[in-house]
């Protein structure tokens, strides 16, 4: 009886695991899911800001409009798309970074997001920031989707 119970628990644990490692899937109709694969060596001077908590760095070569990487506490980093998730990408939808806030510069737009949580600052029904997976191994930060 114990063996059947343990087997059932293991089966339930396996079924409840996500295959995408907990990545954010919000079915946003405005943004595509670009291929992102970055390896940032923190020993290189261009990535020096990421060695210190509270600092961010914008990478423009990947993502839709670029990616902002934020160091929360040297163990936890976030990586977010800079294209406003509540617009079809256009000439003004690339957001600007101000501390831990990103803002959309489009006219008549008050979209602001927290880059740590990804949430819109005032509208709970808005799409959150598109987030990418980020892992630090030694002095290398890997960003993927």
Describe this structure in words.
This protein has one helix at residues 2-16; strands at residues 37-41, 56-59, 67-71, 77-81, 96-98, 101-103, 112-114, 131-137, 140-144. The protein has 145 residues and is mainly β. It has a single domain (2-144), classed as Rieske [2Fe-2S] iron-sulphur domain (Rieske Iron-sulfur Protein, 3-layer Sandwich), CATH 2.102.10. The strands form two sheets. The chain has a six-stranded antiparallel sheet with strand order 1-9-8-4-3-2, with no helix packed on it. It starts with a helix and ends with a strand. The model is unreliable at 15-25 (pLDDT under 50).
Task: Please name the defining characteristics of this protein.
mainly beta; single chain; 1 helix; 145 residues; Rieske Iron-sulfur Protein
CATH superfamily annotation: Rieske [2Fe-2S] iron-sulphur domain
Evaluate the radius of gyration: 18 Å
Helix count equals 1
Total number of β-strand segments? 9
Question: What proportion of the residues form beta strands (DSSP E)?
Answer: 25-35%
Helix content: 10-25%
Q: What is the approximate shape?
A: globular
Q: What is the total number of structural domains?
A: 1
- CATH class designation: Mainly Beta
**Model regions low in confidence, pLDDT < 50 over at least 5 residues:** 15-25
Cα(first) to Cα(last) distance is 42 Å
Across the major sheet, the strand order is: 1-9-8-4-3-2
**What does the largest sheet look like?**
6 strands, antiparallel
Mean pLDDT: 87
Order of helices and strands: HEEEEEEEEE
Quaternary state of the chains: single chain
CATH topological fold name: Rieske Iron-sulfur Protein
Q: Structural class per helix/strand content?
A: mainly beta
From the 3D coordinates, which CATH architecture would you assign? 3-layer Sandwich
